[in-house]
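Most newcomers find our protein records easier to grasp once they have seen one. Nothing more is needed to start thinking about how sequence determines fold. Here is such a record, shown just as it appears in the course material:
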Amino acid sequence: MNRYKKILKPGGLVHLKTDSTFFYEYTMDVIKERNLNLLFSTNDLYKNCPEGREELTRIKTYYETLFTGRGEDIKYCCFQLD
């Protein structure tokens, strides 16, 4: 979280998209512990994409393509540090 704070402007958003269940759950725990402003989260972005935010699923990284091709879910959360 400290690294995010160094690069984000005040009020900026963190958009985390990952195939790692461990990293997603860890991040969700930290958000809760630090009482951060969680705007949206899902453990399956392609089944639960927020309406009006379809751009989150349009661009896929190499690894995202690889893991979704194997049937693995992509997790996503959006939160603020302040």
Notes: The chain has a mean pLDDT of 91. The first strand starts at residue 13 and ends at 18. The radius of gyration is 13 Å.
